[in-house]
Amino acid sequence: MKGIEYKVRNNLHIYIAIDLSCNQFQGKIPKVTGEHRWIALLNLSHNSLTGHIPSLLRNMKELQYLDLSSNQLTGAIPPQLTTLIFLEVLNLSGNQYRGEIPQKGQFNTFNNNSYLENSALCGLPLTKKCANTASPPTRSQKW
């Protein structure tokens, strides 16, 4: 993969690596991408992709490496992606994501580098806290 050695752990299945990085692709990530269950590596970085991350990517149960960095992707990171239990490498940096980073499953293992240059993202592992939209209940005291 462009000079980076990456080992796919399981040998029982045929895995597919798709690297379409550094092209001039525009538009949304096709929803059909989520129908390819046996993809282990998906790299769509350094293009001009727009829109949201399709929640259908959750169907890619064997995905171990996902790089969507350096595009113009927007919206929230779909919490459905936390079901990708084999995901070891995630790079969503250099986009326009917003909202709280999902805190479940493999997402608890990724560091700041996975989310760099997304100024509207908040929550762990970033130091930027999310605004608490719900006020804590107030207790009225009777004297």
Can you lay out the helices and strands and say which pair or pack?
Layout: E1 16-19, E2 26-27, E3 39-43, E4 48-51, E5 65-67, E6 72-75, E7 89-91, E8 96-100, E9 120-122
Parallel strand pairs: 1-3, 2-4, 3-5, 4-6, 5-7, 6-8, 8-9
InterPro entries: Leu-rich_rpt, LRR_dom_sf
Subcellular location: Cell membrane
Family: Belongs to the RLP family.
Describe the structure.
The radius of gyration is 18 Å and the shape is globular. It is built from no helices and nine strands. It has strands spanning 16-19, 26-27, 39-43, 48-51, 65-67, 72-75, 89-91, 96-100, 120-122. It has a single domain (16-122), classed as Leucine-rich repeat, LRR (right-handed beta-alpha superhelix) (Alpha-Beta Horseshoe), CATH 3.80.10. Helices cover 0% and strands 23% of the residues.
